[in-house]
Amino acid sequence: MFEAFANWLVYTLIGMDPASTLGGAVQYFIYGVSKIFVMMASIVFVVSFARSFFPPHKIKEILSHEKWGISHLTAALFGAISPFCSCSSIPIFIGLAEAEVPLGVAFAFLVTSPLVNEIAFGIMGATFGWKIAFIYAGSGILLGVVAGLIMGKLGMQKELLKRYNGEECTFLPTTLKGRIKFSAMEVWDIVKRMYLFIIGGVALGAIIHGYVPAEFFAQYIGKGNWFAVPFAVFVGIPIYAGCSTVVPVIFAIATKGVPLGTALAFMMSIAGLSLPEALILKGSMSMRLLTIFYIVVAIGIILIGYLFNIIL
Hints:
Blueprint: H1 2-13, H2 21-51, H3 56-63, H4 70-80, H5 89-98, H6 103-115, H7 118-128, H8 130-153, H9 176-211, H10 214-221, H11 228-236, H12 243-254, H13 260-272, H14 275-282, H15 287-311
């Protein structure tokens, strides 16, 4: 549907040449933007509606009782649907820690929150296919659980430095009409905040798709380079963007012959190991705890990248 719309708009209505580089890039841009916005709005509405049944204090109560690692999985699942509410994931992480939720459980949330979310999942499914989207989501949740268990075993609760005085979401509707309105407002709020990033990401992806030669990527992070995955993770750290804004760029890179696992590792490092996030977290924990957290997550992302390259 989206591809047919893009073909009609670019090649029939506008009259661009399908064989030209510019025509292909513009078609890619229209196709990507239309598909991403429809998927994003649909999935955010559904997840926001479901999230309206779970106020933050209930989440803290559920996660405060650790047993057999189930709480880590629960926290990771909450993280997968939480980052685009009106509270950021870092204040929620601090709130969980201050509510005496085990530190490893709080870290399971923090790891998964930027990596797996309804928007990234929808865009991933629309771009790469739902099989890959589910594998990616499962890998991100598994990484959150394992990293949380490791951080919890280190016993570093005292490494948290100070309280976070941020705003907490306290209002959630209780009626059907209120929940529908709440979900629609969440969609509108996210579209307002994300549309420039998504358009920019798709535009960059279109430029890469149309103009950057495949040899450029093959030379540095192609299949023959064993160091491609850790190199991609390292390069992604200074970049600040969410998974949902990077997916179009990753898709364009993957079409140039870069292994999907390498491309996804690059995306995960951008979302989960960004320098701005590190600067924010530095105000809440010691450098030792922050460094260990980054090392654990980076190793996990590298392993996931190699795994994707093997199985896909």
